[in-house]
Amino acid sequence: MRIIGGHDFYDGAQALGQDLERVFVRASFDKTEGLKADECGLVPVKASRLLLVPDRSRHRYASDDRVDNRKGRFDFRPLVVWFAGVRHAGVMVSGRHKGEESYTNWCAWSATELRDFLSSVESGLAEAFWSGDDISASSVDAWFSDAGTKAEREWLVSEGVSIAISDGMGAEHGHRAWHDSRRWKIDTDGLKDLGFARVLPPWEAFQRLEMWVGGILSRPGRATVEIESDLVRRDKHGFDGMSFKKPKSQN
Prior knowledge:
This protein has 251 residues and is an alpha+beta fold. It contains six helices and nine strands. The longest helix has 15 residues, at 202-216. The model is unreliable at 220-225 (pLDDT under 50).
């Protein structure tokens, strides 16, 4: 499969061989506005924040949604990536460790990763005392293991979508801003910045994407993207750049 547009962590797998007639057209994450949550068939991300244990040293007794202590200050944004028909849930961590100038943007892709990070900054998930969608100690495992719905996968196939990344403002900007800014970036790059290689190694990610594009999405009755160039036809029939050329005579 040949990828046109953008740059991502799995692109290097193309060096191992390409089917030039199969093409995946990809946009730049930063240059794509995306679809609003109510404009597509994917369930919008309903969790706006984490419910964290209160910092008693600051006389806080209700659950917090950010870390702000001697270890640093961090905000959290739940997100979802659909990749080749499979749902992957994560939590984006943004902030700065105490005494460090560099800003951290890191994504946890499992409940264990999230718990370990929170423990490293002297925090942890609290129990929820009300029903809701925010991520708590009792719901964190379900958040990461949610496989999505059959209707969502059917929408991906019907619309020819290979990659969908949830995006929007974090809850630190207020509930209304978070709710109204929820979007899905469709068929873009940007997975490298999310550390998605920890979910799927580059070669496996490329292979899954190729099978999705060339298998599921190109089912009978659906138009596919093909490159009808002379070079493709030549290679398809087993010829190369030297075919039909008369060798130069040697003196």
